[in-house]
Every structure is written in structure tokens, then in C-alpha cells.
Amino acid sequence: MQIPVRFKLMGQTISVIYNPKLIQENDWTGLASYRRNAIEIMPPSEANVKNSDQLEHTFIHELIHHILYYAGASLHETDPSKMHADEGFVDTFAGLLHQALVTAEYE
User: Fold this and answer.
1) Sign of CA dihedral 14, 36, 17, 54
2) Are 73 and 80 in contact (CB under 8 A)?
3) Are 49 and 78 in contact (CB under 8 A)?
4) Residue 81 confidence (pLDDT)
5) Residue 101: which residues within 8 A CB-CB, separation 6 or more?
6) Which H or E run includes 38?
7) Mean pLDDT calculated for residue range 69-97
8) How many CB atoms lie within 10 A of CB 14?
């Protein structure tokens, strides 16, 4: 699976940026910035050893944050501000989507 440099959601262009300082700044390996329409990913390094599956999972995790952010109230009637921030749900969804995408078989 390739990680894109940009994509669109709801007419908004989301940029994918590799930020080697992300882990030092926030102790995160990925970040969804709704205000800046960006996904930041910590690239592999000696301090952050990652294989391609782990990078792809990080990208999909942050992508799902953005999708749920834009989907908002239509997905969570009681409190639409919560779904995109539910880390457990987002990470499980990301893992399942990543597995489906990278193991898909075609004729």
C-alpha cells in the first residue's frame, strides 16, 4: 500500500507530511490536524523503528480521525464531537481497514 502525499475529503485537501520531530514534540507517531488539513507521520529512524505495515497503520489511523471528524453528527447522534476523538475505536477501525486493504485479492 502506498501512503499518499495528499487526498481530498468533503472538498478539503488533506496533506500528508513526514515530521521527524513529532515523537520528540508530543511523543506521538501520528497526528491529525483538522485546522491545518494535515496528517503528520513520524518517519522511521533509529529512535522510531517502523516497518511499512506500521507506517501504513499510522496513516490509516489518522485518516480515520479525519473521516470521522468530517462525518460528525451523522455518525454519533448523542455527541458528535466524541467519535473522531475515540482513540480505541479509531485504532481498531484502522487495524481492520488496513488488513482488508493490504490483504485484498483481485482476479
Assistant:
1) negative
2) yes
3) no
4) 63
5) 1, 60
6) strand 38-41
7) 79
8) 22
**Cα separation of 104 and 69, whole Å?**
27
Name the DSSP letter for residue 1. Answer: -
Under a CB-based contact definition with an 8 Å cutoff, are residues 22 and 12 in contact? no
Report pLDDT digits (tens) over 9-56: 989 999 999 999 888 777 788 999 999 999 999 998 887 788 999 999
Q: Which residues contact 52 (CB under 8 A, 6 or more apart)?
A: 1
* Residue 24 neighbours by CB under 8 Å, 6+ apart: none
Q: What cell was used for 88?
A: 480505541
Domain boundaries, the chain: 6-103
pTM: 0.86
Give the sheet arrangement for strand 6-9, strand by strand.
6-9, 12-18, 38-41, 30-33
- Residue 89, amino acid: F
Q: Which ranges of 1-107 does DSSP label H, i.e. alpha helix?
A: 22-26, 52-71, 87-103
Question: Hey, how many other C-beta atoms are within 10 angstroms of the C-beta on 94?
Answer: 21
